[in-house]
Amino acid sequence: MPLPTDRAASLAIFCKVVDNYGDIGICWRLARQLQSEHGVAVTLWVDDLASFQRICPEIDVAVESQQAAGVTVRHWRGQDGAFAPTDIADIVIEFFACDIPPGYIAAMAQCTPHPVWLNLEGLTAEEWVEGCHALTSPRHGMIKHFFFPGFTHKTGGLLREAALEEKRLAFQADAAAMAAFLRQFGVTAAELSALKVSLFCYPSAPVAELFAAWRQGDEPVVCLVPEGVAFDAVQAFIGDDAAPAGAARTRGALTVRVLPFVSQDDYDRLLWACDVNFVRGEDSFVRAQWAGKPFLWHIYLQDENLHHVKLRAFLQRYAVDGQGAIASLAQAALAWNGAGADALPWTALWPALCADMPRISVRAQDWQRQMQENGDLASNLLAFAGATR
Fold first, then answer.
1. Which end of the chain has fewer CB within 10 Å, C or N?
2. Is 324 exposed, middle or buried (0-12, 13-18, 19+ CB in 10 A)?
3. What is the dihedral of CA 87, 88, 90, 93, to 10 degrees?
4. Is 47 a residue of the active site?
5. Residue 121 is among the residues annotated as catalytic for this protein
C-alpha cells in the first residue's frame, strides 16, 4: 500500500545522542530535507537538546515540543508514555538501533496498516552491507526493515540535499564571499593565501604531532578548529587555559584559530572554503565528501578496534584511482586513527600527503560525482517506504 496521497505523509525519527553531534547532525539534516524537499510532516524525537542546540542555535533546551525549520522537535526523555494509533507516523525511524518507547511500539501495532518501521543504520563501506540493506525482522507482529546508507547503488546512498552542489559551486566561485566568510573568524588577508585546514576530530587524534609538523614546515598553514575540539593540543599551542572561541596564535609556519560552533549550513561553507578538511564520525565525514576537497577521516572508536576494519574498508574504495593506490593518503589516514603499527612520523607523512595533493584533489572530485550517481538517502528512503507499505 503506498503512502497517503490525501495528506502529507508523516514521519517520526527517534534519535539518542551518543556521538555528541554526529547522531543528531545526521537526523537533523534528514529531518530538514524530508520536510523542505518532500513535504513530509516530520517529528524528531531527541534525548539531548543541549547537543542539538550547538548545531541549531534556535533550539530551546527548556521546551518539550517546538518547531524548527518546519520540523516538530520533541524532547525524548525515554519514558514510555501513552500513545494512541492517531499519534503514530506513517514512517517510523529508529536511528542506529535505539530503543523507541514500548508504548509507541504498542500503538504502532494497533494501526491499520502498520507504519513502515525502519532501523536507519550507521554508515560503513564494508561489503556485507549490500547483503543486509533492506533485510526484514518480525517484531511485535510487524516488520522492521534495516536501511543502510552506503557508497554503492545497492545501499541507501548518502545524505545530500538537492541544491547542495549548486550552492557549493556558487560559493566557491565567489572569492569575495569566501573571504568574507573566513574573516568573521578572524582570518587575516595574509592568512587567506595560506593553506587553510579545518580540524574536527576526537580527543585520541595525534593533533600535537601534526601541529609540530605544520609548525616546522616551509608552507604557512592556518588551522581552524571548533572550540573544545582537540582541547589539550590547542590549549598547549595557544598558551591559553581556556582556549575559547576567538583565541589564536602563530608559531613557526602554523596559525591556529579557535572557532565557535556554527550551524550546519555554515559548517558546509567552512569545508568549502578550506583546502584540506579533517573530519570525524559520520556527519562531517559525509559533508567532507560532498565538499569535493581532500580530507582525512577520524572514525568513531569501537571496541576491539572494529573501527579500523571500517576505516580500511573505506580506504580500499576511496584511496585509489586510475593509477592505483594513493599510498600517502592511506598511510596518513591509518596513522591519524592509530591503525598503522609502523606509521611514519607526521614530519614525513604530511610532506608526502602534500606532494600527492593534486592527485588527491582530483580523486575527491571524481568520488563526489560517483556518489551522486547513487541518488540521495532521503529520496531513496521515501521510495523504499512507499514500495514497502
1. N
2. exposed
3. 130
4. no
5. no
The model's pTM is 0.95
| Cell 560559493 sits on residue | 171
CA 264 to chain centre: 10
Outline where DSSP puts E strands in 132-173: 136-139, 142-147
- Look at phi and psi of residue 106 and say left if phi exceeds 0, alpha if psi is from -120 to 50, else beta: alpha
User: Which amino acid makes up residue 375?
Assistant: G
Which position among 47, 282, 283, 376 bears the catalytic label? Answer: 282
Q: Is the dihedral of CA 286, 289, 290, 293 positive or negative?
A: positive
Identity of the amino acid at 298: H
Report CA dihedral (281, 153, 314, 368) to the nearest 10 degrees.
Answer: -80
Helix (H) or strand (E) segment spanning residue 45: strand 41-46
Backbone φ/ψ region at 339: left (φ over 0), alpha (ψ -120 to 50), beta: alpha
Q: Rounded to the nearest 10 degrees, what angle do helices 327-336 and 357-372 cross at? A: 80
Query: Each residue of 248-259: b (16+ CB within 10 Å) or e?
Result: bebeebbbbbbb
Query: Under 8 Å CB-to-CB from 34, ≥6 apart: which residues?
Result: 11, 40, 42, 378, 382
- Which residues are 324's β-sheet partners? 321
Catalytic residue, from 23, 47, 48, 90: name it.
23
Beta-bridged to residue 14, according to DSSP, are 45, 94
Residues 6+ apart with CB under 8 A from 51: 17, 20, 21, 24
What sign for the dihedral angle of Cα 85, 86, 92, 96? Answer: negative
48-88 pLDDT, tens digit per residue, is: 999 999 889 999 999 999 999 999 999 998 766 789 999 99
